[in-house]
Amino acid sequence: MALQxxxxxxxxxxxxxxxxxDTQYNSSGRAFWTSAIVRTEASVEHSSSNPDLPPLAxxxxxxxxxxxxxERRLLRETQQQPIGSRRRRAALQSTSNIPFEQLPYxxxxxxxxxxxxxxxxxxxxxxxxxxxxxxxxxxxxxLCGGEYVKKGRLVRMQKHLxxxxxLADINxxxxxxxxxxxQGDMDRPIYRYLADRQWRQQRRLILLQRxxxxxxxxxxxxxxxxxxxxxxxxxxxxxxxxxxxxSQNSEMPxxxxxxxxxxxxxxxxxxxxxxxxxNTETDSFDSRCHFFAVNVPISPSSTSVSLARIADGSHTxxxxxxxxxxxxSPYHRLVVFVLEQKGGESLDTEAVKRMxxxxxxxxxxxxxxxxxxxxxxxxxxxxxxxDDGMAGLMQRAKIAGADIELKRMKPEKLPYKKKKSERxx
Length: 425
Prior knowledge:
By secondary structure, the protein is α+β, with helices and mostly antiparallel strands. Helices cover about 40% and strands about 15% of the residues.
C-alpha cells in the first residue's frame, strides 16, 4: 500500500504542474515532426459573451441554444434553424470557439498536410480528365467508331470526372464538420454525395418499409425506387411516413421539403392522392385527387415548397382538398407523389386540366404519369381517420357525407340443408 502512494505522489505532482501549461509544446521532444511549431495562437471568438451584442442576440445564438424552449423561440423570432446537434451547442457554451482547422494538435495538423497533398493530386487528375474530355469532344464521330460509341465514352469520362471531384474532398475534416453542422452548400458535389449517403443509410429504408407495409406498391403504383427525399410538414409538425394526422392539422395545405441529389434545376409536378375512398355502389374503393400542381421549380439548394403559395399561383390544376374520412370507414392513406417533368419542359396548365378533367373522384395516378410523361422520383404518405373535428372540417369545406356512418355488411349465411340422419347412426 505504501508503495502505491510512493508512485502516486510524483504522478499527482506532474498532473498539477501540467494543468496550466497544457497548450505549450516542448521543442526538444519534437524530433519526429516534420512541420514547424505553430507559435501564433488561434483566433478565439466569443460570440455569445460579446458585450456589444444585445442580450436577445446573445441568448438566441443559433450556435449555442441548447434547450427545446430556446430552439422554438429561435425559430419563431429569427426564422433560423439551430446549427449542429444539441450536444455540440451545449458544449460550445462552455468552450472557446477555436476555428476547426486551427486546432493546436500536432497529429491533427500532420494528418491535414497529408490530406492536402492527396487533394492536390486529385485536382491535378481533374484538370487532366477535363483536357481529355475536351479532346474527345472535337474528334469526329467516324474516328471514334460512331456517334453511339463516342457518346458512351463521353458519359463514362464525365462520370469519372464527377467521382474525382468527390474523392478530392471526401476526407477533408472541414467538409465533414460543415456537413454535420448543417452548413454544407448543396450546389457542391461532395455535400450532395454526403447527404445522399446519409439518407440512404436510414431514412430511405424506413420509407421503403412503410410503402411495403401499407401496400402502396402495388395498390397505387406498380414499382418505385426513390431518388429524392421528401419531407412533409403540417404547421410545426414534421410528419414521418405513415403517421396519423389529425383533421385540425391537415385542414390547411402542408409544406414540402424536396431534396434532390443531382445537380441542376428542374420542374416537378406534385400530386396528392387518397386511394381509399369507399364506393358503396360497387362495394370497392376509388381514388381521389386532393392536390395537383405542375411546373414547380426545385434545385439541390432550393428545397422548400409551400402548397399554400402554389395554390395562389398559376401552377395549380386542383387546389387543396382537406383529407377526410367518413365515420365507420377504415383509415385513409394519403400519398404525396413528386413527378419530375420530362426534359425540364413546362406544361400547359389548361391542357393538363382538359386532359385530366376537373373532377377529383375517379383519379388514376398511373394514367396521370403516362399523360404528362412524369417520372416518379419521390413519395411521402400519411394517414387520416374519423376524429372529433372531422365533421366540422367537412362542413367548412362543403364536403357531403359528414352525417353518414358506414357499417360493414355481414356476409349472407348459406341456406340450411338438413343432413341425412343415417350418417349419425
